[in-house]
Amino acid sequence: MSDKNNSAAKRSGGLGRGLSSLLEGNKYTGKIDSTTLNALNTIADIAIDQIQTNPFQPRTHFDQAALEELADSIRIQGIIQPITVRQLDQNTYQLISGERRYQASKMAGLTVIPAYIRKADDQQMLEMALIENIQRESLNAIEIALSYQRLLTECSLKQEELGDRVGKKRTTVTNYLRLLKLPPAIQIGLRDNVISMGHARALINIDTVENQLEIYKKVVAEELSVRKVEELVRNVQNANKKPDPQQKLSFNKYDQELKTVETKLSSQFGTKIMVKANNDGKGEIKIPFVSVDELNRILDLLNY
């Protein structure tokens, strides 16, 4: 190992000692060797060649230029934040989180890396990897939605629990999950930043895939704003409405404003909101729900 790499390793070890003092009950043990077993809840320097990557890592691509920048920083400053691993056997560890730091440390030529050692089963490994990515990576809306969905299905979490785990309101989680109902072409456009989440949330309110794709193509071709897309969505919704012979429709000046309110409320509540008014200005707002969970979600939005 070069003097530069040795100094980087020493700096990272010193920092490990500093961090361990902030973690109650954690003891800095120094370099792990073959005689150290079951060193749980400790921060220690572990040989990089004893660490396996996380098979549950949801991100498969890391920006090479960003990794090289991080590696340059590590050569100078060492590891600022230890990675997290679990111990598989006497000389083998597996990454739980911190793959970018791990990969950049290898690029920087380090042979040891400070790591926090903890116990975790396969489900916990997946959960921690997903949550770390959601909280720390610059994910697009579809990647976040897919991570939320994996936490629900593969980690057997309920939406209420998921919101607590990722530090988000249940309505925020629901709005992301609804994006996965869009057709693949629109999801790809959102993933690739061709459209924004505001565009996508407006498109969700269209009943048919055909109309969703038609407006999506128009959005891309004409670079339409979110406000313009909401207007197009309202036009589609109005065109698809069947006339109600029992109701006298009002065509006064605030009708269009009511439709705007209806669209915005539908987007905010994540369900189709109906706003009706008669010629006297009297009316009602209907908020439908299909389950107790849906009702509770709506009540949360109303701060009830």
Question: How are the SSEs ordered, and which strands pair?
Answer:
Elements: H1 3-20, E1 27-31, E2 42-47, E3 51-52, H2 64-77, E4 83-89, E5 92-97, H3 99-107, E6 112-117, H4 122-136, H5 141-154, H6 159-166, H7 170-178, H8 184-191, H9 197-204, H10 209-222, H11 226-240, H12 255-269, E7 274-277, E8 283-286, H13 292-301
Parallel strand pairs: 1-2, 3-5, 4-6
Antiparallel strand pairs: 2-6, 4-5, 7-8
Description:
The protein is an alpha/beta fold. The protein has 3 domains: 3-121, Alpha-Beta Complex (Conserved hypothetical protein from pyrococcus furiosus pfu- 392566-001, ParB domain), CATH 3.90.1530; 193-241; 249-304, no CATH class. It is built from 13 helices and 8 strands. The strands form 2 sheets. The protein has a 6-stranded mixed β-sheet with strand order 1-2-6-4-5-3. Strands 7-8 form a two-stranded antiparallel sheet. Strand 4 (83-89) and strand 5 form a beta hairpin. Belongs to the ParB family.
Assign an overall shape.
elongated
CATH superfamily of the largest domain: Conserved hypothetical protein from pyrococcus furiosus pfu- 392566-001, ParB domain
Secondary structure category? alpha/beta
Strand content: 5-15%
CATH architecture descriptor of the largest domain: Alpha-Beta Complex
CATH fold field value of the largest domain: Conserved hypothetical protein from pyrococcus furiosus pfu- 392566-001, ParB domain
Low-confidence stretches: 1-38, 245-252
CATH class of the largest domain: Alpha Beta
Helical amount: 40-55%
- Let me know the largest β-sheet: 6 strands, mixed
